Fold this sequence. Notes:
Number of strands: 6
Order of helices and strands: HHHHEHEEEHHHHEHEHH
CATH architecture: Up-down Bundle
Helix content: 55-70%
Structural class: alpha+beta
CATH superfamily: Outer membrane efflux proteins (OEP)
CATH class: Mainly Alpha
CATH topology: Outer membrane efflux proteins (OEP)
Distance between the termini: 78 Å
Largest sheet: 4 strands, antiparallel
Radius of gyration: 40 Å
Amino acid sequence: MNNMNVFRKYKIISALLICMIYAGCKAPVSIQDSDRKALPASYSDVKDSVNSAEIKWKDFFSDKDLIALIDTALKNNLDVLTTFQEIEIARNDVRLRKGMLFPNVGIAAGAGLEKVGKYTSQGAGDASAEITPGQIVPENLGNLYLGFQASWEVDVWGKLRNAKRAAYSRYLGTIEGKNFVVTNLVSEVATTYYELLALDNQLQIIKETIELQKNALELVKIQKQASAVTELAVKQFEAQVLNSQAMEFDVQQQITENENKMNFLLGRYPQPIVRDKASFDQLPMQIKTGVPSQLLKNRPDVKQAELELYATKCDVRAAKAEFYPSLNITGSAGFQGFKPSYLFMTPQSLAYSLAGDLMAPLINRSAIKAEFYQAKARQLEAMYDYQKTILDGYVEVSNELSNVSNLQKAYDLKSKQVDVLTQSIDISNDLFRSARANYFEVLMAQRDALEAKLELVDTKKQQFNSITNIYKALGGGWK
């Protein structure tokens, strides 16, 4: 008869185990990695493995004032300081996930009082029991406990390990995120610096032009006294001087705003920005683009997207493990008695327990299904974001390469235009003095020359920015 009961218990346990395994087998299927789009072999017909992104920013930029500004920004910029805290948050999340892999052990103490009914099985037993000869169990029974308690979820299916891997991958991603912030900051400081140099040169051009215009105005006034020209010519020249003077104040305002922007990037309140406008004539070093596949290891945003993709894969595995049986082990050991004098009467007061439970979801699994499909959707989202980041990086480099080439051609042509228009000012003045050209031609020559000079400076600034942007697009600036 006893054998039959034992056999029946084994049948029940076996049935439960089969149900748990079946429940795990019914878990949804994870998505497979999609094929990555292969990057082109090169950005153009020229293939060169040398990549400017490998150059440290202190070696890439030659202007000592710009290097000092970037160095200050990297120490004080608030966005960079914020990313350090994001890294610390992610690091502590890794510690949390790692700690969940180990048993949770703590010390426990407790006290209680219980009185049970006499006409119950426990009450009747207590009434007939003697602690010592002639001393029965008290009617008001205390319960004192002091000892250790432990619990441990055994990571059979890798749920906790995958959660830890996901946290660690995101921690590495925050480091790459910090590098991406640094890359953008270096680029923005350089771009703002070149904007200031361009404005300084434009301001100098405007001041020199104002002096030329004032000299022309004095000449026209003399000719009016000699009745060679009318009052209209004098007013036209005066208006031109006033327009240039107004332009001067507009440029000064732009300088102030860009200085304040630079100081904000440096994490400090407004103060003068040290710079030498003569350095505007020296472009940074020649750019070497390397091959597109180097974007995968040089661009921090690409590496961050790749790490996030791996983290979402681990999230999917952890979510899938929720469908399988979970094994939890609990235990305790300590001393227990109904009054302090009995608490440490070993071994009589020694109490311990050890239990293990295996549980798998069978009915109403919609919550864990929703969690799984949510993790699955996030993995697909991360995959598309990763592919988009790579594509965006390639397009950025390709655009800036074309921009560098076209800006150089435009700069060469505008330089010739400035030379021609500068000569036309002298020619128009000579012709005007000899009455072979009217004042309107002199005004037009001065205006066209001023516009061409300002455009030439602006083109030069765009060259600086384009080289800086392609350095950033290649993944340079964070080393």
